[in-house]
Task: structure prediction
Amino acid sequence: MGTGILEIQKTARYRTFGDESNPHLIIALHGYGQLAEYFIRNFESLDPGSYFIVAPEGMHRFYLQGSSGRVGASWMTKEWREQDIEENVLYMEKLTEHLASRKNYETVTLLGFSQGGATAARWLDRTRFKIDRFILWACVFPEDINPGFDAESFSKVEKIFVLGDEDEYFSGDNFHKMNAFYESHGFRVINFQGKHRIDINPLHLLFKKSE
Result:
């Protein structure tokens, strides 16, 4: 029994909020089982005259329960993960090339939530696209890359980790271990009172709140 590999063309989609002429770009990657359409709503309280938010959607979609109903997306699974990693990196490269061809942004923030954080980290580790601020939110750092980002190109990237003190995936000792891990690798750690979600309070600490 053999296995064949066939290269095909696939179309990816992303959601946006704000005007693309705004000076500050935020690229936000959703977590497991989410869709960009709903994930981007977490950022709608930010100043629509300052920020342009782009939320790419993972290319693996599935029913969240059974064989009908609500649909979610993911970035990868354990099955053929190396190929998915390569294609996610290519996806992000194509997306940022498209964005850069339309405007030169004053600042660029890359934010990865939960499973999207691993995809964001892997892309940042390999891209030459200029990122000013890198935010990982409630996620485990992927073991296949260096969390210290030793390359000279990362030396000026502001690195931030955000985690709720009631996060169901990082409870008890794991909460403190996660904070200590990221602090030891040069991340500024921000904690908030809440669960596994994008919370408005730390979000407004990181980005100027709309008036």
Observations:
- The chain has a mean pLDDT of 94.
- Residues 21 and 175 are 39 Å apart (CA to CA).
